[in-house]
Every structure is written in structure tokens, then in C-alpha cells.
Amino acid sequence: MSNLNGNIYGYTGLFPIKRDVDCSVLRANVRSLDSHPFGSPLSSIDIVHTARLVIIDRLPFQGEPAKYDTLTSAYLLFACNFDGSDIEELVTAIATKIPDTFRSLWGSCVAVPAVSRDPAARAELIEYFRRCQIRTTLFLVDQPGTTVKQILRSLALTRRFAAFVEQHQGEDPSIVQQRFEDMWQAFTAAPGPSPGSW
After folding, report:
1. Domain span at 180
2. Using CA atoms, how far apart are residues 73 and 17, in angstroms rounded to an integer?
3. What is the pLDDT of residues 81-95, one digit of tens each?
4. Of the residues 131, 159, 179, which one is the last residue of a structural domain?
5. pTM for this prediction
6. 75 closest CA partner among 107, 124, 113, 109
């Protein structure tokens, strides 16, 4: 298997953190991302299904007779499933939609290129993500042919239909049918929900 399953790409990257960076401060920065109105700035990227950020600055000790393992560097782990066929789409979206978040996290990493609208600088950033990528050997997704927008639309319809059923139980079938048609027309005319709005 590869990083691609259907229309969804699974990216995992290990980015070495600069030696002079205090990992506890960076970890606090990662934890503070949930103060965003939709749970994370990454919800601003409408192709992202899931994303995880983890600071790895030590390895667990397994107990005797094992020995303590040490790292030569701390790492920022970034794992993300997104709609697309290449990391270029993800990196471009991160750089254009959440550049401040990018700088606050990846700015602590070794040799990270600057975020810029310049195509040459963007190519450097994409190549940096490729260099830090870990090849996925088993990438499973529950709906490989479904985009984030389609999933959000389905969830919105499910929620609206459940509320409709609850609200109209016991009513005359002809009235229910008319109200259902009204609900359906309103639903199809409305824009889809925003990522993270659930």
C-alpha cells in the first residue's frame, strides 16, 4: 500500500526541532490550537479530514532489562489525512490559509523554509515536507472515495433529517410530505457546513 487510498492521501512527517527550542513551550503552543473557533486552525483547510501534531522529545523507558533510548533531536510529528493525491496540495493550503500557524509551529524546526507566495519558495517548502515524510505502509480510511465536503454535507443532512422526524411525528402524512419537500429544498439551496463546525 501507499500514502494514497482512493481520493485520500495520508501524510506523516517527522520534523527535527532546533536544539535551542524549549519543547515544553512548543507543546503548549500545540495545545493552544484548540482555542480556535472550530477547534483548530487546520479546520480552515477544507481538504483536511484529520490532523495530529505531537512533540516527541523523549522515548518511554520499557523497564528492565531494556536500556534508556535517547534521541539526537526532538521532533514535531505531523500526521494528516486530506483530499488529494500529493502533499503539494496540503502544503500549499497550509502556507496560504494558515501561514501564522505554520510559522508558530514549523518555525521551531531545523532548516524550515520561509512561507511565501513566491512559487520558488513554495517549491522549497513542498520539498522540505517531502524530505521529512515517513512512507506509509498501511493506510486505511473508512470512506476512500468521499471528500471532506461530502462528509460534512451528509452529516448536516443526517442531523436535519433527525430533527425533522422528531418534530413531525404523528402529523398527517400529506403535511409531513409537504414539510419534507420544503426542508429538502431549503437544504439543497443552503451552502454546506464549514470544516470544524461540528
Report:
1. 148-189
2. 7
3. 999 999 999 999 999
4. 131
5. 0.84
6. 109
